Each structure stands twice: as C-alpha cells, then as structure tokens.
Amino acid sequence: MRLETKYAEQLISLLEDAQDVGLPHVVFELRPMDMDLQPHQLSLFETIGEALEYLDNAAGNNYLPGDADYPIYYRHADRLLEEIKQANSLTINNIDMNRNNLENLKEELKRLGFKEKVAADMEKQIEKGIPDFTLSDKVNGNKGQVDLSLHFRQSGQSDNYYFNKFTVALNTGKALEEGQKYMVISPNEQAPGKNLVKSFENVTEAIDFFKAQKGNSELAAGKDAAHKVELAKMENSKVNYVANDFQRTFRTPAQTQTFFVERGKGFTAEQAANMIQGRSVYRDDLLNLAGDPYAAWIKLDFDSPKDRYQNYTTNQYHVPSYGFTTKEALEKYQIKELADPKKQEALMQSIENGNRPLITTVKDGQDVKLHIEAAPRFRQINFFREDGKPEKREQFLKEPKLEQTLQLNKEKGQAKEQEQGMAV
Questions:
Q1: By Cβ atoms counted within 10 A, which residue in 54, 271, 288, 343 is the most buried?
Q2: What are the residues whose beta carbons fall under 8 Å from the beta carbon of 283, sequence distance 6 or more?
Q3: Which residue has the higher pLDDT, 332 or 73?
Q4: What pLDDT is recorded for position 113?
Q5: Cα–Cα distance for residue pair 310/396, rounded to 1 Å
Q6: Is 260 helix (H, G, I), strand (E, B) or coil?
C-alpha cells in the first residue's frame, strides 16, 4: 500500500481532529488513477462496527480489501497516522519544524502581550508563504492612539520565520471606535464608476499611503466605505481638505520608536506603548556589557536627538542605587489599595509597566479616585484626576511635610485670633 502523498499534512490534521471528536475508525480507498491519498478519500466512524459495515458495502460496489485493482482498507486512526508519518518522514519533519516554529512565534507574541488577532493574522501570512510581512495592533493611550507595527521575516537558510522588532507610533488624534478602520478610497481606473478601497488599522500607514496617491483620493474612517466619515481629500494630486479635528494628526508626524525583541524577550507591547507616551517602565532582566543582570527604570529621552536608526536614546535609573523603589515610593502616600496584598501586588505591577492605574486616596476627608504614575527621575509618584489634570502629591502624604504642618498651624492660629476678636 502506497501512502507517500503530498497531502500528508492535511491528512494528519484530519485524523488528529477525528480522534478529538470521537471518530477513530477509518475506511479509505486507494485508486490506481489517483495513488496520492487525499482527505476526501477517508470515511470516519465512531465505532468499528460502523466502519466494517461500510467496508462490506463498499466490497459489493467493486471495491476489494487489500492491494486489488480497487483496494479499500480499514485502519484505526492511530495506526494510519503512524503509517502516514513513516511513509512521509521527510515531509513530516518539515511539517513538525514549521509547526514548532509557528507555535514558538505564538508563544512569543503572547509573552509580549499582543492580541490573539495578531497571532491569527500571522498564521495566515505564514501559510501563504509570504517571506516578509508587517502586522498591525493598537493601544488606546492617555495621550492619543498608539499604533504598533510588528515586523516578521523568513530565514534565508530555512522555512522558519522570525519576529525581531516592532515599531510604536503615538498619534495625538482621537482613537477609533471598536470595529472601525481607516480607508483610502480612490477611483478604479480599470472599472469606471467603481472605487478601490484599501483599509488600515494604523493611522500613520493610512496617512502615508493617502499622501502617496496621485489624482483624486479620499482618506476616511468608519466600519466600511458605506458608513464613512471623511478625514481628508485630494484632487488632482493635491490635498485640498483636512477635517478640523484631524488636522493635528494629519500634519504632525507621529512620535515613533522601534523596539527589538529576541525570542519573546524584551519590552512588551504595553510597556512600549507607555514609553512612547513619556512614561517610565521597570525591568529586572536587563544585562550590562559584561552579561551581568541588573534592574532599572527606563524612560525615552525626548530631549536628545535620535540615533542613526531614528530611535530615541534612553535614560536609566538603576535600582536600588538610584534611590527609587516602587513599594517604598507608594507607601509614603494614603493609598487604600496597599492594605490588600493582592491589590498591592497588582498595583505595583501595573505602575512598573508604565501604566497610570486608578487608586483610592483621601482628600478633604473624602475618598477620591485618582490615577498615579511613577516618576523615578524625581523619585516621586505623580497624581492625576480622571480628566488627566495633575494633583499636588503633598496633600496625599501619610505624614505632611514640615512646611505643610507650619502652614496648617498658622491657619489654625489665625482662626483662633478671629474667634477671640469676635468674642470681644
């Protein structure tokens, strides 16, 4: 029986799925005119009785068991899987390698905090055999939308793919609603009266593509072209309209930074999105030039020129030598979440990833909700109202500073003098 077939991968996938759903008994035929076994030639059954009954009926239709002119066979899925793998060992080795590569990439994306949709899109591109491709993701930030572009490439020496870097771009415009996308709509010269529509999740890519158009074109946003909001318009290769609330996004280049990763290790998507918004993140898995591990807070230096790769350099504040640690900094303030060990751990992890978590503190004798962020450069914690406006951190200290105490005593003294004056 010849089981060498170019459909080995599909057959293995089918048989593994059949076992999972409780159909482990297989009857299949091998025709002389079509000796490559294909998935459609397999019939799957729940019980061996059903399989053998089908086999008997097939024998009455000029099919015979074994290696006759029209052979038909019965196998348990386990045995057939093993026989197919043995007959296609070289193909299976490549399949296993490719599967391992794909699973490793999925694990790397998960570890770095990218959405499941990104992993699904990656798998589709790899299945098509595209050697280099870029995928998009996005994060709604405090200062606008952060677009993420993930870069994948295939090895020149094997079929393996690698994910070595991703770029973040901070756009100050309003973030898209769920289910919406950017679109560049242009006339279809091959089909007059119809339009070409190219969709984007990344506003930077959409703007760049729109600006590169010739003739007439439109940049819009929405669920689809039938439900769009026009953002910009081009006539005769010149941009003649940009919506008022989109002008800053359209005319101001996005702040960008490329982050390099190695086998799923590096800055996560969340950390990178927070860093491009100007916040600091904590890493305890950094290595110096000698290969020794160390911990530090890291912040992009927007005040210095970019390097030759068009990336911002970074400032580092080593822990504990710089004098700022998360727990000690938080414990100076009246933060109610610190009383619960689980909430404290979650709060510390969030702030170390560069987020602005929401906490509960006390102001004027009342509980209030505020956002906080780490400012390791100044060895401080910053407080913000929910509308983003800053609050003075001193009013939330557990122990007011000396000047606050003196001011409070002064105010009390003035109030007492006024009371005495009124009494006279």
A1: 271
A2: 267, 295, 296, 298
A3: 332
A4: 95
A5: 40
A6: strand
Residue 358: name the closest of 178, 142, 189, 204 by CA: 142
CB atoms within 10 A of CB 379: 14
Environment class of 369 (CB within 10 Å of its CB; exposed 0-12, middle 13-18, buried 19+): exposed
pTM: 0.69
CB contact at 8 A, 19 and 79: no
Average pLDDT of span 310-338: 95
Residue found under tokens 């158009």? 213
Residue type, 402: L
Residues 6+ apart with CB under 8 A from 305: none
Greater confidence (75 vs 86) lies with 75
The CB density around residue 241, as the number of other CB atoms within 10 Å, is 12
User: How many Å apart are CA 184 and CA 225, to the nearest integer?
Assistant: 9
- The span from the CA of 209 to the CA of 257, in Å, is 20
Mean pLDDT of the chain: 86
Distance CA 42, CA 362 (A): 70
Residue recorded with tokens 């793919």: 161
H or E stretch covering 318: strand 314-319
Angstrom distance (rounded) from CA 361 to CA 200: 42
Q: Which residue has the tokens 């690698």?
A: 162
Q: Please tell me the distance from the alpha carbon of residue 210 to that of residue 45, in angstroms, as a whole number.
A: 55
Q: How far apart are CA 209 and CA 231, in angstroms?
A: 14
Most distant pair of Cα atoms in the chain: their distance: 124
Token pair, residue 115, equals 């959405």
> How many CA atoms within 13 Å lie on the side-chain side of 370?
24
CA 95 vs CA 10, 119, 243, 246: distances in Å: 10, 19, 51, 48
Helix spans in 30-87 (H): 48-59, 77-87
